[in-house]
Design a protein that fits this description.
Helix content is about 50%, strand content about 5%. It has about 170 residues and is mainly alpha-helical. The chain is elongated, with a radius of gyration of 23 Å.
Length: about 170
Amino acid sequence: MSTYYETWIDRSETIHDQTSYTQYVNLYYAMEKEAYDKILTAYPDNKELTSGKADELAKRLGFNADTMDIFVGFVDGIKTSLKNEVDVEHIDDDTEIDLDIDYEKLYYNMRDAKATWLFKLSSWKNVLDDEKMVEIARDYREANIAHSDKIGRNDPCPCGSGKKYKKCCGKNA
């Protein structure tokens, strides 16, 4: 018998047939959105939604016995935004889980994943103020701008001569 994690990996990363794969992934996205919305809406009093036995925690977040693999996928997705480690590969119904969420990191990671359906949830307003969300969005954009240290032909020469690079140090380059 497969673990929930093995089922999650098989169904989310292997396309046996396109229709079932698409249905599975869409179900994951819908359940993920609902779970995040519950957690963010209840913030800061959301401990019952972020801590407990896996099967009970899953149920409170909207997952059921038939979607425990999707719940483990949800935990797998949030684990990079946690202050603690969770061993997703070995989660079973009785595993104690504590999702100690770093909310600023979670918001940043949602932007990084381009998950607009998640980072645009209105329930984020319960957790981060508009100014903080704008700051995180700016940090994300700045971290993802392509930078080049290459000197352009028409840039000022780095030697400080005041000449263009192509007429100075770049003349023989």
